[in-house]
Amino acid sequence: MIRCLRRPPTAIVKTPATASTKKHSAKESFLTAYRHMLSARLLEDRLATLYRAGGKIVGGVYLSRGQEAFSAALAVQLKKGRDIYAGLIRDQAGRMAFGEPLLDTTRTYLGSALGPMRGRDGNIHRGRPKEGMPAMISHLGTSISVVAGMLLARRLQGRLGDTVGAASVGDGATSTGAFHEGLNMAAVEKLPMVIAIANNQFAYSTPTSRQFACADLIERARGYGVEGYKVDGTDLGDCLDVFEKAVERARHGHGPQMIVGTLLRLSGHGEHDDASYVPPQMRQSDLGRDCLPAAEKTIRSGKWLSDSEFDSLRIEVQQEIDQAFAQSMQEPAPDPYKETWSSFSTLELADGWQVR
Ligand SMILES: Cc1ncc(C[n+]2csc(CCOP(=O)(O)OP(=O)(O)O)c2C)c(N)n1
Ligand SMILES: [Mg+2]
Which of 184, 191, 214, 248 minimizes the number of CB atoms within 10 Å of its CB? Predict the structure, then answer.
């Protein structure tokens, strides 16, 4: 279900397309997003197994199970090499859809010195700032301010062009000061920004009823004077549709777009958390629908992939994942005697590269 809080004017700026090319590109986006969802799921399943086995992964493991559709749908609509994408802990699929190599994930989790964090981070704070992907910041809500700042900097330097900046956060992040300050500034400056809020009903074990008093998070959009849309975060087709329009509207001068995806986190906050606080009836409701088999059902009913093509895709994706893990496991950990001890965490920043 897509609900639009403030219905956009009918004249959405669009590149002219015939009905058949539009249908074709919708199918292409769906299949591309599906591949990233599948890849994220299989990769994270392996991470969970390694975490439980012990020894290889030192830090925590944070999974995005159930949130892959909402995550991938935003990133596939962005222009790689041009736009900005700040994903959070549930954005393995989105990161990959924005171009992050599998090796960045496996090297970071396995502590390889060759990874983007040089083996200094055990899980998720990696980034590729040079390629428009700021390293993930733990402090909830701050990515809103960071992306707004990056867009404003580009505008002041006269090189904003048609860049769009996207930041993805959870429901809990919307309670932080940084979220409100960042969103307000983006709204006042009418920045070309998309704010994706994955409302997975919990911030760790805190339910949304203890997080906000408005009937629905989407109501906050009106308070800031930005356009807001609500979408079923388990439905890949709907998510692609809403993000396509949001990115397009942000790109064409309509200011920040706030999208709230309603879904349920299907794992614990991290693999150390059994999520026993999630009521069983919530899991059994529409909220608990798993977006991956749901997307597969759409593909099958449209006959977009045959059974053998599904099998080949899964084998191909699994092989890529196995290869990335095998390579990262053989790579060296950081050597304290050879470290430069620069305070920058990401390799790109440590190498003297300037933030764009
Ligand atoms: C400002 C701040 N407060 C607390 C934390 C600790 N913390 C990390 S993740 C998390 C829950 C996040 O919930 P939400 O934003 O809903 O995202 P989700 O984990 O559900 O995807 C908390 C409280 C933090 N990182 N930053
Ligand atoms: Mg949450």
Answer: 214
